[in-house]
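Take a specimen:
=====
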Amino acid sequence: PADPLHVGDLVGSGVNQSGQKWRATVLVTMHDGDEAVVPGASVSIAWSTGPTATATTDANGQCSFTLSNLSKQSNPSVTLTITGAAHATLSYSAAANHETSITINKP
């Protein structure tokens, strides 16, 4: 694999929960410099509402982040921003990201 490690794709969805609640999920795909998927990359994110999280990409170079129990009234949308990434043999370059953030609207 070639440098740089970067975000290849962000796909977001909003799903209804009970009552006036909803949840947002974002699927992250990490690529290398040859645009091949990268398993085993650690990806760090921050939600616009405050929470942060880190996950590791699977064999398909993907990991997902979910934020649940959002109020449809006070949180009609949320934004996920990639705050960093790391890999054992690749260097991360935010400048190479295809996308760095995504906004998900309530369903």
User: Anything to note?
Assistant: The first strand starts at residue 6 and ends at 16. The radius of gyration is 14 Å. The CA atoms of residues 14 and 107 lie 5 Å apart.
